[in-house]
Amino acid sequence: MEVEPVAHRFPSIPRQQNGVTAELADARARLRQAAPPDRWDDVLAEVRRLQATEGLSPLDALKAVYARLASGWIPGG
């Protein structure tokens, strides 16, 4: 006797982020693109510094560092 499977396997659907998580992911991706590849650690250190010393939220810190990069700031310099 042959037994048929009870459930069908559907191709996995890519998980979509929404809300704040999506905003954070988008801001981080934009920051990563704008940052010099060899200075990514310095960029992240600046994000953490702004969160700790200025009390910025993670999203606001990412945006602030992005703005600094856009204005010509060189991380670690």
Largest sheet: none
Shape field: elongated
Distance between the termini: 73 Å
Strand fraction equals under 5%
Return residue spans where pLDDT drops below 50 for at least 5 consecutive residues.
Answer: none
Order of helices and strands: HHH
Query: Which structural class matches the secondary elements?
Result: mainly alpha
Helix content: 55-70%
The pLDDT mean sits at 87
- Rg calculated over all Cα atoms: 20 Å
Number of strands: 0
Total helices: the number is 3
3D structure, described in words:
Helices cover 57% and strands 0% of the residues. The protein has 77 residues and is an all-alpha fold. Helix 1 packs parallel to helix 3 (58-70). The termini are far apart.
Tell me briefly what this model is:
With 77 residues, this protein is mainly alpha-helical. It contains three helices and no strands.
Strand and helix map with partners:
Blueprint: H1 19-34, H2 40-54, H3 58-70
Descriptive tags:
77 residues, 57% helix
